[in-house]
Each structure stands twice: as C-alpha cells, then as structure tokens.
Amino acid sequence: MKIGLFIPCYIDAFYPQTGIATLELLEKLGQEAEYPMDQTCCGQPMANSGCNRDAKETEALFIRNFSKYDVIVSPSGSCVHHIRDNFDAIEQTDEVRHVRKNTYELVEFIHDVLKVREFPWAEFPHKVGLHNSCATLRSLRTASMSELGEPFFSKPKTLLSAVKGISFAAPRRPDECCGFGGTYSVTEEAVSARMGLDKVTDHHDAGAEYIVSADTSCMMHQQGCAERNGVPIRFIHIAEILNGARA
Amino acid sequence: MSNRPVPHARLAAEFLKDEPHRHFHDERLWDMRQKRDEQMHIMPEWQELREQASRLKEHTLAHLPQYLEQFEENARCNGIHVHWARDGAEHNRIVEKILKDHGHSSIIKSKSMITDECEMREYLEPKGVSVTETDLGERIQQLDNELPSHVVVPAVQKLTTDVAKTFARYYNTDPNIDDPHALAEAQRNAARPVLLSGDTGMTGGNFLVAETGSFVVCTNEGNADLSANLPNLHIATLGIERLVPRMADLGVFIRLLSRSALGSPITQYTTHFRRPKKGGEMHVILVDNGRSERLGMDDFWTSLKCIRCGACMNTCPVYRRSGGQSYGSVYSGPIGAIIDPTFNARKFSTLPFASTMNGSCTNVCPVKIDIHEQLYKWRRVLAERHEIPFVKREIMKMAGRLLAQPTMYRLAISGTEVALKTMPRFVLYNYLNPWGKHRELPHPVKETFHSWYKKNRLNRTKTQREETQA
Amino acid sequence: MSDETMSARDVIMQRLKAKKSPQEGAYPLPPVVTLGDQDASPERFEASLALMGGRMLSLQDGEGIEQAIRRAFPEMRNLCTAVPEVEGTLRIEDLETHEQADKVDVMVVRAAFGVAETGGIFLSEVELKDHLADVHLAQHLIVLLSKNELVGNMHNAYQERSEFRTAGYGVLMSGPSATADIQGVLIRGAQGVRSLSVIWA
C-alpha cells in the first residue's frame, strides 16, 4: 500500500511536530508513507467561503500531487472532510474520484484500515479532554453524536485507551463546536473566540490537563483562546500521543 | 426595508459584551437542548419518527397543489372562509378588508411567525387597528418594538430585570420587580380586559390537515384558545407549506414538535379548529410569500419541511452566543439563515456565514432538513451572485492562486515564518487583527514540516540510495 | 392570463405547478405508523399529567365529587359546572357573558378522553356546551375522566378517536396554562387556567 501523506498548510507552518509524529507513527506501524513536496492545501478555505471556483486550481494541484497513491492519509479531519464530501470545484474524473474515495483521516485509517489497537510504545500519564472536531464527529463519523442518541462509540478514544497511564476528563458539552470554523474564526471573531474560551474552560473545569484532538486547526484556535484568557491547559495532537510523546 | 446586509458579526459582538445576558442566553437554550435529548433517550422510536416526519413533509410538498385544493374544499364545506395571499402585502389587505366588512378595529392575537413575516402590525396599526399580542414573550417583544428573537421563546434574550422595566412603562408596575411570577401575573391582569373587549381573534397555526379541512394551533399559555374563541371572528394565517395529508399524520408531528422545541412531551394546549363556533365566523388565509419560489429551488426546497420548533436554534453554538436580534430577521438561527436569503438575498447575505457549519442543527431537526449543507450551498450561491464582501472575494481569489502554485506558496510560507519570529507584536496584531483581538497567535517554529521532511527523509533516502549505489 | 387578472389562488397554484422542484413520483405517501409505547394505563396517564403540571384529585372515603372539589378549593366562591355529577353554584349553560366566566373560580367539565402518553384530556364544544372560551377564563379547572376512555399515545389518539373528525373545536389540554417566557422560569397559569386537576369518574 503506497501512502501519500497530506500535511495541511497550518500544520506545516505552525505545528510541524504533528506532521512528524504522523509520519513516524505510520512508519512504526510498518507503513511506508511519502510526502509529496509540492503540496499546499485542499482548497477548503475558498470552498467554505462560497468561492468554490477559486478552489479549482488548488484542487487540481492536490490531484497532481496525490493521484499516484493507493491511499492518502492526513492528520486533519476537516481537510479530509472537504476532500471526501465537498471537493467538486474540478471535473470529477476517475483520478479525482480515486483520490476522494481513498483519503483518510489518521484515526480512521489506523482504526478502520490498519485495524491497529495496540501502541506498546505509547504512554501518556495525564488526564486528557478529547475534542472531536465537528468534521470528524458529524461528517467522518469517527464518534457517536449526542444529538442522535446512538450507542456510544469513539474511534479516537478506542485508540487512546491503549495508551498507558492516560485518563479522560468528561466535559459538560463534549460535542459542542469550539468555534474555529475556518474563515469563520476571523469573519465572526467575537463569537468564535467566545466559543473557544467556553470550550477550553469546559475541558479545564472537567480536570483536563491536555486537550487532545485529531484536528490541529481547532486546537490552534483553542490554544489562542486559552492563552489569551490564562486558562492553564495544554494541547496535543492524537498522533503525538499515539507516537509515544510523554508530554 | 433596508437592503444593507445585516451586520451579524458586529451585533453578536455587542450581545456578547454583557456577561449576565450572554451567560443566561447560552445556558437557557442549552438547557432546552438537554431536555430535548432526555425525551429522545426515552423514546427508542425517535429516529423512526424523524424519518416518517421527513417523508410525510417531502411527500406533501411534492403534491402541494393537490393537498391545498383538498384542504380548501374540506375547509369550505366546514364553513371556513379560505383566502389566498401571494405575499405579505396581500395578506394584510385581506385582514384589513375582513375587519372593515365587520366594522372591527381591535385584534387580539396569539403568536404567529407568519404575521410577523408579513409585517401585519406595521400595516394595520397606522390604519387605526389595534393589534395586541397575547403570548407573553411576543407581548414583551411587541412592547419593546423588537422582532421575535426565537421562534418558540420570542423574548429569550431578556432577563427578568429587562421585562420589569418594560412592564413598568406600559403596565405601571414596579420597575424593580425581580420575580418572574409577579411579572407574569401583571401580564395576565393586563391581558384579560383586552382579551374580553377585542372584536377579532387572530391565530397562526402549526398544521393544516388536508383530509379534514382543519388546522392545529399549539401553545402553552392557552392564549390562542382565548384569542380565537372570545370574539365571534377568528382569522388564522398559515403558510401554504403547513399541510399534512391526514389526521393520523398529526400523531407523528405532535409527538416531535414540543419535545424538539422545549423538551416537553406536548404543548399544554393542542387545539384543533375544524369549523367556526356557533354564531361565529372563521377565516383561514393561506400565504405564499416566496414559498412557491422556494419550492422551485433544487437545493433549498426541503427547508419548507420546517415545523418551527426552534431545535436548531437551541443547539446552535453560534445562535446561543449571538442572540436572535443579531440576525435582523423574523427567522433567526440556522433555519433563519437558510430561509431568510430567499426573502432578500442581499440583506441576509451575511447569515449563511454566521455558522461554523458544525452540523448539530441538522442532527436535531425533527424533519431532517440538511440545514448545515444548505448553509454551505447558500455560500456558493451568494458568492456567485457577488453578495459577499469585495475584500473577501479578492482574498479568496488571491488565496486560490497562491495555493495552486507550490513555489510561490513556499515563499509565502517562509515569509510567515520570518514574520512571526521577527515582527513586533503590535504590527502582527494589527495585521491579523480579527484573529488577535481575543486570541493569541500560534507560536513560531524553528522549521516547517516541509523543510524537516526534506532534511530527515528526502536527504536521508538520498544518502541511503547513494550508500547502496556505492 | 397575467398575474393581475388571475385570482391569487390561481397564481399560487400556477407557480407551484410550474416550478415545483420535488417530483411527485419520487415521494410516495408513507403509510400511517403507530410507534412507541402504547400503554394506555391510568398509571401512565397520572405520571404524564404530573410531568405536565397537572394533578390528580382523588376522592376520600365516602366523599362525593363536589365534596372533593370543595375540599381542594376551600376558598372557592363559585363553582361552574358542565357535568350532571356536580351541582355547583352555576351551570355553564347559564353563563351569559364572558365577563361572568372571567369571575369563575373553579370550572368542572368531563373530558371525552385522555391520552396516557401526555396526560392530555380532550374537550370539544360537546363537553363545553359551546362555551369554548369560558373554560379558559376560569381560574381553575377540574376534569372528570373515565378510565375506560384512555388511549396510549398520540398515534392512537388520532387514529382511534372519532372526535378529531367530528368536533368543530377540540383541545387537548395537558396540564394547566404555562409559560417560561421570562428568564426561563416555569410559571403555571399564564393566561388560561392556573391549575388542572383530574378526577377518575
């Protein structure tokens, strides 16, 4: 299986350790993953702003970069959601369909495709609050949604439960959006920041030392809100914990 | 009506400034969502009910002309006068004429979103007709001259102290009352004489039943039963999409409506009107006002399935923190954001962007409207029609170009890296002003993933290859 | 014909027929469903009624209905009755004005049936002797209900009870008038009756 690694722009620029952990984790799990050097973005910022036409060239570049792989894996739920569900600014050729069908968010790839449940090298002796981004929760469906009353399941929690020493905080509103929303974070900054502060406060009040998520974009926003308001909580991507980070 | 785009972001920011209001609003609506969840959890058939409700509504909308004809015929047989209004203005003229024919001039009225949509009070009051809202929340909004904040709890953005001040102005009560019971009692006492002297009763309606020519009004206060039955003239206004085919279908909708809205098993009063009372006269006005046009929109027609429960508003994290007034419309929250642009695409062009597209609204909708997907589609429609700000359009165009060219993109990224490390804080926060207003920026890093990969994998692979070759 | 010369009805119908997006064949009429708990027991009714803010009024040993009402409302100045079982101080048929009804302390009526799921009771012009508004003007409401006239849930109600097809006015009251429009505080007795009590009879 030839894996193409998609590291979105903000991870590339601000959270390289998440990209590194993703790659190393895949390698630990016996996979060969390659990072195409010409990659930029999936086109989501333009598409979510309604400017779908402006995403066309970016989507085309994405296909040029990734169509040669059997699967594409990314540590970003929201980007994968865009590729899978909304990537339609370009013509839907066989190549495009192949890419859209075979792009996975890291947790679902490990959980559903590799079906790995053990990470013997991983130990994280901390209480964590799990943040499911809205894209992983309600689009990729990697966890049960509180609005539907469905039986509980959580792919990220299943994976994290194999990590030695970890424990989970129970926030009051586990499924509440943190308010990032891509360009929403700047177009409606006041509401967005309020939601972010409420989110980190909820986790902190539940005793979480860390917020862990499969979406760095949500955490970038939450971290900004926590730091500005002095909420003492740290942030870590699930890839880093599964890869063996201790703190 | 002003055509200027509703400044939702600014109005929401203002709403957030007052801690007690902000906090109460969020918690109150969240509590309604929690109560809704409790009802769902004790009903294993919940998802089946939603599916049935959705299919019934879709069927009805696909056959709307037949069902409207069937309703009209049956209602007429029952002795109800049926009127049709193409738009709000025509609706208001119909009401005016009915009143004129009877020499009437005072309407007592239960809560109805559609008469607000038609701006009926604004039309009738200058003509000497008094219109008194009898629902407590709607009355508060009327006295304050504000649109309803929420489809079910119109004054949910207010605290007891706000209501006390308003009532003091109009009912001569103590402006410092802090007991909601005392205020509700003041409203009851003020409303009774008005109810007893009103010459015309008006209600909205939640459902029209084609099979029997009847309509259903759901309230908790019982004010619709008083408003409709006290005078000898009852006028009910309903949108043409309110239809259900059969009486038996009401079981599905009534079981979902109040549970979705407030988390109560049913509204205190579920009232079925089928013919005028003895000696009375009954009129039903069926209003289009853009609905037929919406039914022709491939991407948006299912928004007509809405039964106005407000569940999407209660769950919406943006609505809970913005307040209903920030939507500048009769219909606020997620459902408002997808139907308001059908009334005025420019004025309400900001509303589909007042969302993080988290999708919770879609999950709670009892008739399964794909609300967040329609928000996404509206963004596209509005961008294509140039109904989004010029600056945003330009930024997106530039971003689209930049992200399509790896070399230029790399240059830009390295620029950011340098900027984050070297630029003084105030310059950065001005440049990235909206982000930085209430948030810190991400921390600068030593190197991008891109350069790490180049160093640690590409070069390593190359070295290994060279070693193997050697 | 242009919009100007056609009736509003015809214009709306024409618009609907011309533009409608959903196609008829794609959306067949789903069959009527009966879902969920259909338990029609008095115990379920009582629990639901309590949840909706209503209450049961049970007769003590040897006590008649009217005695029980007088016991529950000792301050009552008048008792308006729509049932033969209770004599009261005035009969609903004798109410001549709404102002008279506005002064009624307690009204007693018989419900056609009750719904166990919601604690709802059904009243129409038949039970109200055409005094549709007067029942809502009274301060308190007593409802006589037969245990034999209970349906399980709202599906059962609409499918089994013919009153929905025969009544001109039919209200399902589940508990008393209520509001939570001021700061979310639940208040019983907003505009209509302040309390609703059911007596099995």
TrEMBL record, chain A:
Membrane-crossing segments per the record: none
Pfam families linked to this entry: CCG
Domain of life per record: Bacteria
All residue ranges annotated as the Cysteine-rich domain in the record: 4-84, 129-221
InterPro entries, per the entry: Cys_rich_dom
PANTHER family, per database record: LACTATE UTILIZATION PROTEIN A, UNCHARACTERIZED PROTEIN YKGE
Record's protein name: Fe-S oxidoreductase
Automatic annotation (TrEMBL), chain B:
Pfam families the record matches: Fer4_8, LUD_dom, LutB_C
Domain 4Fe-4S ferredoxin-type: residue ranges: 297-326
Superkingdom of origin: Bacteria
Keyword annotations from UniProtKB, A to Z: 4Fe-4S, Electron transport, Iron, Iron-sulfur, Metal-binding, Repeat, Transport
SUPFAM superfamilies in UniProt: alpha-helical ferredoxin, NagB/RpiA/CoA transferase-like
InterPro entries linked: 4Fe4S_Fe-S-bd (IPR017896), 4Fe4S_Fe_S_CS (IPR017900), FTHF_cligase-like_sf (IPR024185), Helical_ferredxn (IPR009051), LUD_dom (IPR003741), LutB/LldF (IPR004452), LutB_C (IPR024569), NagB/RpiA_transferase-like (IPR037171)
Protein name, per record: 4Fe-4S ferredoxin
Originating organism: Bombella mellum
